Amino acid sequence: MTPATPATTPGTASTTTTPGTASKAPSTTTPATAPEPASAAPAPVRVVAAGDHFVLPALITSAVREELRDRPFSVRELTLGWPLEPFGRVAEVEEASDAEEELAEALADADVLVTQMGPVTERVLAAAHRLRLVVVCRGGPVNVNLRAARAHGVRVCFAPGRNAAATAEFTVGLLLAALRRIPQAHDLLARQGSWGGAAYYTYENSGLELEDLPVGLVGYGAVGSRVARVLGAFGARVLVHDPYVRGEVHGLRVGSLDELLGRSRVISLHARLTPETRGLIGARELALLPPGAVLVNVARGPLVDEQALCEALKNGRLSAAALDTFEQEPVPPGSPLFDLAGTERLVMTPHLGGASRAVAEKAARIAAAEVGRWTRGEPLAHCLD
Q: What is the pTM of this model?
């Protein structure tokens, strides 16, 4: 069957129904608990694919079709505005598209919602009387009112690891850009039309290479561990600090953050943002780095005290920094970061670490797999309860 065509206007929807043949699937009104009699045809599973311009509704529909190929189902597609329209706080949830009304209407008779940015608020849940499963196509369901979901008997799943490879690759890309001053050289030639790159061939202005360079990783989760393996292939001397990781690491484990900072020419951040890690790298920590060190952050902006970072770049304590995430996003006009970006000391990108087609496709498949497990009465792999 031809995949459903995604809606192209935020708030619009299209519907497709695919028949199946299974005869022993669970009831769609009770999550994986009450199998129907063998002689009864299973009721269609009603799914709302509330995608956006990144995780396309059609990707969700295609993945759900593959998972539910032996069971009748229908999909109603809804295209939300992100990233062409910014996300933000919607009612009591964070990082969501402003589409409460459209989502509530689409969920009126749905059993399952698969979404990335849909605002799953108290209002939306109260309107979705049949809803029993929400799957969020991202690393955490920040756009879901979890308390209200529990109260309404709705299970909530998410898609961990969907962007780990993309973020690791982007981290290494930014690291190389900062070490070898690639953006500045591009600007010099492509935008200024100058063959003045000879200045970068002087010993004083030449960049660093990864081979034999001590690179410290703060955090060794799905992203940090991938970065470690890639850096090892370059011949870097990888140092790792993560008090929560047990077992072997790809590199040398360092017991304290202070020791890691003192031994590393490059620091790359891969820690989660928690109350304990907010401001993890401030003026004191930056002062522990060897003169001329480089900092890379493709994790979370608030891990770094930006004021202290700017000062370290200005006074030469750091030779460069590469940032994909920031304390405040979007970066506000007038931020001192923009002044530094005009020099060769700072590389900035607007939170693009997870922006790859593969991420959108993986997210849809991970989410659809949860829908398949739910309909078959199997344990859910990434459920919060």
A: 0.86
